[in-house]
Task: structure prediction
Amino acid sequence: MRLTTRRRIRSIQEGLKLLWEGDEKRIRRKYRGELGRDPDLDDPATYTEKVLWLNLHHRDPRQVICADKYEVRGWVAERVGTDILVPLLGVYDDADDIDFESLPDSFAIKATHGSGWNLIVPDKSGLDWAEARRSLQEWLSRSYYAHKREWQYRDMPHRLIVEEFLVGDDGGIPSQYQFFCFRRGDRQTILVQVDFDELTDHR
Result:
């Protein structure tokens, strides 16, 4: 991967941030800043506290595979086949390697090593590719682990995938379903979140 000066500086900044502030300290500080109180990480009771406890203490190699938007494709294909996967147009280590002219009129580009770093393009004729490329390079320079302290992202390769653009029945982006599963002994709880709008309408 060709590193720009900006990306080198970002990498150094992220490294210094990790040295200065440990995982638990940063998690507690961010929680306090957003909710106005300290999380109980010794005896977690709320959903958020339990997730934070898992971030600090749970280590399963499958987390790394399933969180990586590229690697998880192989994991899914081995278990249920490739039919349910969004068709892949390419995987890249550097945004400069993406041939914009060869892409279809609509597509999606996602950073594989984080969450929320998505470029959804329903019509590329209206896209400022130079500006979009700068955003993609910015994503590649960032460590999602350094920001969120979610262990599975710590050593994940920084890549971009280009996928076909999916259209829902209403002509917009399809709703997304997220399943949060918890098990304690013989008890299992499943929380379902439906994102009718990727940015605002979560239920």
